[in-house]
Design goal:
Shape: globular
Protein name: Nucleotide-diphospho-sugar transferase family protein
Structural class: alpha/beta
Strand content: 5-15%
Number of strands: 23
Pfam families: Nucleotid_trans (PF03407)
Radius of gyration: 32 Å
GO molecular function, one term: arabinosyltransferase activity
CATH architecture of the largest domain: Alpha-Beta Complex
Keywords: Membrane, Transferase, Transmembrane, Transmembrane helix
Strand order of the largest sheet: 3-2-1-4-7-6-10-9-8
CATH topology of the largest domain: Spore Coat Polysaccharide Biosynthesis Protein SpsA, Chain A
CATH superfamily of the largest domain: Spore Coat Polysaccharide Biosynthesis Protein SpsA, Chain A
Distance between the termini: 103 Å
InterPro entries: Glycosyltransferase_77, Nucl-diP-sugar_transferase
Length: about 625
Amino acid sequence: MAWRNGCEEVTQSKPLFLTIYTVVIIGIVVSSFYVFSAIYSSNTPASQSSAWLSSSISTEDPHHIDHTLNISQSEKSPTVSIPSPVKENVWPSSVWEIPPSNKKMPPLKNFRLTKELVQQRVKDNVVIVTFGNYAFMDFILTWVKKLTDLEVSNFLVGAMDTKLLEALYWKGVPVFDMGSHMSTVDVGWGTPTFHKMGREKVILLDSILPFGFEVLMCDTDMVWLKNPLPYLARHPGADILTSSDQVVPTVVDDSLEIWQEVSGAYNIGIFHWRPTESAKILAKQWKEMLLADDKIWDQNGFNDILHTQLGPSVDDDSGLVYTFDGKLKLGILPASIFCSGHTYFVQAMYQQLRLEPYAVHTTFQYGGTEGKRHRLREAMQFLDPPEYYNPPGGLLSFKPSIPKSMLLSGEHNIESHFTLINHQTKQIRTALAIASLLNRTLVVPPLWCRLDRMWYPHPGILEGSMTRQPFLCPLDHVFEVNVMLKKLPEEEFGPEIGIREYSMLDNPSLPPEVKKSWLDVQLCKEGTQGCDGSYNSTVGGVLKFPKHSNEEMFMKVFSSFKDVKVIKLSSVEDAFTGFTNKEREDRFRNRVKRYVGIWCCMPDTPIGHIYYDMYWDEKPGWKAIPPQSPEEDHPPL
């Protein structure tokens, strides 16, 4: 009725007013249409569902999608006070889903850490977080792959540099910008930049906890082996659950460590925080402590704050302890299943206790980042591309020979340990020479040790630990893995010799074309029947090759097998007489002398470590003794 009266009045008015009324009425109709459309669309089930569904719609014009991703919601409709639609997710709909190639990457501001951004990844109010720079890209991808294999997707990766952020985005990994603008290279443990990275962790925690979410914070140099969330949910009363450097078990099942018996530091490489008031106050104080003094290591600061008040127990059953302000409830995750580099790689504590490990953190190792990577590869827990398993030139493998007496007879002491190690390093030295000669990558065999290695004096193994003697020890216990993988000048150290972990040929990721291309070589005594380097395909496909062969013999025989992916020698003892060219021999020696490290450490001596020597057998009367003076304290180069 009102509309009709208005129209009648307009028709009786002058033409100018008719025009004005018409424009106003049309404007009202159009505005009403847009307002009601916006309200309707914001309340539809589709808009309330997972925010990243919009990125999977393929019927939209791609240029239109690019445009909307680069404009915030407030920029689109700054004057309309209606419920805002759910903000579009900056990531694809699922982890590992690669964004369309014709789609521009959203602007950096869209990756800023906000409650809304974190909310998109939360499940059951928990988010798992790690962070790093581009140098740790392969560790981060491994971390992500392990979680997705466990069907866990409620995680986020913080990028400390734009290069990593962009790389992860284009791989379909949920990533956010930490705004650190750090170097993209490996900063090295203990450096000022390393300590700066530690401070970023505390700042990150202090930022996320006020959002009201639980945070499972992890370092990138660890991997998940089992979904940890059900375990953490078993301890709902804990404000913080932390891993530790404990090497002596206080429990033999999967319950929390007995806090009164824990002597190892609380390790912040794996810890779970609930957004309680005490936890938020702790995070804030910890952050303020570190920002006030750049010399404090983040982990030491965390331990110092918690130990200002430690005890009493919360109750008789939970395993939790009051700490910090007397209200915060702390639980210490069992080191047998939330493993350190010692309880997993050395003690294999979880195996002995018949438990299933949840995680392994590559602590207690001696080869820097390369050592961490190699340990995970030995355990077949690292994500490598297919080409890693199929290097140019092929692979060389051999079966090590170790007499039973070297492993099991007599006491486990320094003398018997070095006798065992020297016997193995001599074989590896020969294999490295053959690999260099044939331009192949050496699969380094498993290494047996009789004594553990540590940074401080000990009686051979750590007292109270579950280390068995002898034990399969990580390569970095004896060899400088970081040096073996380092690019060294060829004019001084000869050609590069690639290495691979002992488990590689058993890894399920080994490509079929490598598995099928295999040559077994049986060493034989020269002059015996068939021992002439000829290949008899009718006798089990084994090539008989004479011992004490020189460079010419190796090149003559194996040049016919350049296309074979894997050559496996039955032994390398007495296999190779040495390089013909003295200059090449000297450069090879110069290289491999640097491949071995130290054993540490003898008690009650001024200098407790002992250097391994790759050419121990060429020094009559060589003994495993520590340097007798500071002047002697250097590698045997």
